[in-house]
Amino acid sequence: MEILVRVLCIVIGYCFGMIQTAFIYGKMHGIDIREHGSGNSGTTNALRVLGKKAGLIVLLGDFFKAGIVCILARVIGTMFFPEILYPMILWGGLGVVLGHNFPFYMNFKGGKGIAATAGVIFGTLDWRLWLICLLSFVICVVITRYVSLGSLIVVTLLFASFVTLGMTGNIMNPITDTAYNGNDLIESYIILFLFAALAFERHKANIVRLVHGEENKIFSKKPEVEQESK
After folding, report:
1. How many C-alpha atoms does 175 have within 13 Å on its Cβ side?
2. Mean pLDDT of the chain
3. What local confidence, expressed as pLDDT, does residue 221 receive?
4. Which pLDDT value is given to residue 88?
5. Are 96 and 13 in contact (CB under 8 A)?
6. Which pLDDT score is estimated for 230?
7. Which one of 41, 100, 131, 209 has the fewest CB atoms closer than 10 angstroms to its CB?
8. For the whole prediction, is pTM greater than 0.85?
9. What are the start-end ranges of the H helices in 175-220?
């Protein structure tokens, strides 16, 4: 039964993840976002191609679709499966990122899943993870103006912070008020590692440009180097 619950969380998450905010917003304004800028259906490309308003709308849309799934998983888990509450939340969130990154109706070419991952962090309702990830992203982007670098730092610190908190007995089940341990905690580590792996996979081109000093900076007028998602 618990396996089916996990699969259901992923499927529901994937369905929500396929709500491509950037693609929908672009179509409403007569633009296929995949044919402009980096070709990526995500927040940064929407910001560059369609402007600040579009970037904010896409960010919020992708953020809240993940947050809603995680909160829904939390509610269901609280009522029926409190012992696997955290894995349920994370599986649902991972489903959203998969749906966002690889929507089947767009030939599996979507965004990079960072705004959706931020929604998952919100959905954990853990202020420590919020604070660590938000501050690290803001500081990195303010200093370097590289959104991609900030994004990769966030997913890395999310994984590292969760593992550290888990190993020190500070990831608590809010229902039983006991620390997670054993298989459920290891399962959560694995899921968060997958979040990071997906982010790094989707940012391969960005990483190459960062290494060579050719990455685009936020609000830069420099044209995109390549169509990343094509």
Report:
1. 14
2. 89
3. 53
4. 93
5. yes
6. 32
7. 131
8. yes
9. 182-202, 204-211
* Lookup result for tokens 């792996």: 197
CA distance 110 to 64: 17
Q: Closest Cα partner for 82 from 193, 178, 194, 183?
A: 178
Give the length of the chain. 230
Is 97 domain-assigned? yes
pLDDT in tens, 121-141: 999 889 999 999 999 999 999
The boundaries of the domain holding residue 63 are 2-211
Beta pairing class for 172-173 and 178-179: antiparallel
> Residue 64: is its pLDDT beyond 50?
yes
Residue 10 lies in a domain: yes
| C-alpha radius of gyration, the chain, whole number | 17
Query: How many secondary structure helices (H) and strands (E) does the chain include?
Result: 10, 2
CB 89 within 8 A of CB 123: yes
Count: domains in the chain? 1
Two structure tokens written together for 223: 């044209």
pLDDT at site 219: 66
* pLDDT over 60 (residue 212): yes
**Residue 230 resides in a domain:** no
Is 224 a domain residue? no
| Single-letter residue type at 146 | Y
Identity of the residue numbered 208: V
215 in helix, strand or coil?
Answer: coil
